[in-house]
Fold this protein.
Amino acid sequence: MLALRARLSAMPIQTLSRLAEIDARQWDALLPDDQPFLRHAFLCALEESCSVGGRTGWKPAHRVLLDDDGRLLAAAPAYLKSHSYGEYVFDWSWADACLRAGIPYYPKLLVGVPFTPVGGTRLLGAPEAALSLVGALAGEVDEGRCSGVHVNFTDARADALFGGADGWLERLGCQYHWRNRGYRDFQDFLDALSSRKRKQIRKEREQVAGLGLDFVWMEGRELSEAHWDFVYACYSSTYEVRGQAPYLSREFFSLLGARMPEAIRVVFAHQHGRPVAMAFSLLGGDTLYGRYWGCLAEFDRLHFETCFYQGLDFAIGHGLQRFDAGAQGEHKLIRGFEPVITRSWHRLGHPGLRDAVEEFLAGERAGILAYAEEARTALPYRQDCSS
């Protein structure tokens, strides 16, 4: 084991500005599960559609470990960032404090998936090879080559590797995921809820049905460019109403549709045969990941139906175990989505900043854990169905 570690530590970690420089089969072979967001096709679609790179503030800088024969042993999807948009682990206050103190905060290195607050593997490869990446990332900060490294939405294995190494600061967050408890259908799910919550959800669904809306699910292989035009119009509208530019480009959806059609599920809401809204999801393993939604007209309660209840119906009908409908949103809690703790890891170069953030995170962690525990008491399940 020690000899292996020594051999791995002697291999240089390389930085790639284009993921296409690595063979897709080698990259995907390192993935531990079927989650779609780390797949070579997904990350390359972000790059090739110019959703990252260029002037976006997301400069691809993937870290890879290759053996002497050019075989990929370990990798980390990484980006050099000139801002903190699109990360969903909010460090703006850290950056502001640095600005006031005259301490450079950007560029920083982010390990994760752009615009995707979904937990998953961040260190690809066997444990010993992945551990080499942890050391290399730490070295970049300690030697002053970047102000900090931020590893967002990690899985249990990465938590163990970063938690077992000195100098990494752990940050907690809270999301809401739905868990399938063996429901036969949507009514079976409703029967597990308290009477008041059951009536609320039924009323919301009846309100939408009364608007003359119907819903059609389609797979990626069934979607035409006209469908993608509508999907993008809906997606981009959610940013435009806030005066913001959308993170993803129109081309991203076409590329993803061509390269990962088996993972794509889109539900369209129609009124009088005309599409008015959509929700875009990706399927991976036993989980449905709700990602983007949009509506081109105002309909009361349509967001809940399109983004949540349609997804629950789909998950139950297809025997899926989990529905991850995206970050944030306490409104998910009263609809049966349970609090789930997320983790990220941070290494900061400036000693004063590191000490201040470490103190802040200690208090924040306690608050997050207390909040998640309290949030569980707000779940709508009957006492005899709450296990």
Remarks:
- The first strand starts at residue 13 and ends at 16.
- Residues 181-320 form a domain with the Aminopeptidase fold (CATH 3.40.630.30).
- The longest helix spans residues 351-376.
- The chain is about 40% helix and 25% strand.
